[in-house]
Amino acid sequence: MSRIRENLADxxxxxxNSLVNASRAGDEVVILAVSKQQSADAVEAAWRAGQRHFxxxxxxxxxxxxxxxxxxxxxxxxxGRIQSNKTRPIAERFGxxxxxxxxxxxxxxxxxxxxxxxxxxxxxxxxxxxxxxxxGVAPSDVEALARLIVQQPRLRLAGLMTIPPVAEPPRSxxxxxxxxxxxxxxxxxxxxxxxxxxxxxxxxxxxxxxCGSTCVRIGTAIFGARTSAGG
Length: 231
Prior knowledge:
The protein is of the alpha/beta class.
């Protein structure tokens, strides 16, 4: 588990350096540790190394970890595809959802968010390249979905998220990252205030930061190869 601590230190240094290079403030980017198919022990090791934001893709795997690690002050993010029949546990157990891509999901999350909790932070997933194997709303439809979300009392529109096509070299994704930033700015101009840009993963997060990312989703660069959800 000492390797997780070392990997986190390396990622933090690279994020800090990227922010300096982009002339941005040192606290502008959240490192989101993607812990899917990693053990609860690995999550706890990262937490003991100072990591507080964790993301899960698969609900059943995630719920087991949330139950086991419930005493730790962790901000849990859901970043997987959302099925309509799974919105209740997501709304009840997570603080952030990055993958809202249709009105039905937004309405169900709002309905199921307990009134005893703060509004659920949601991001709209944008499918910029129109990839059929990926979830996400088309860029042209983002504003309509955003306007629906801001009308829901139990939701807070936090921002936008993208998973661009796999690119080589990774910096060639800059065009997608710039486009998402511009889309957020257009929402601002039309009276829809939202700040977060969830973009950038292990291979391209430095490029994403240069383009304005506020949240980078890092899995293998922190935990190494995926193992299983056990433990």
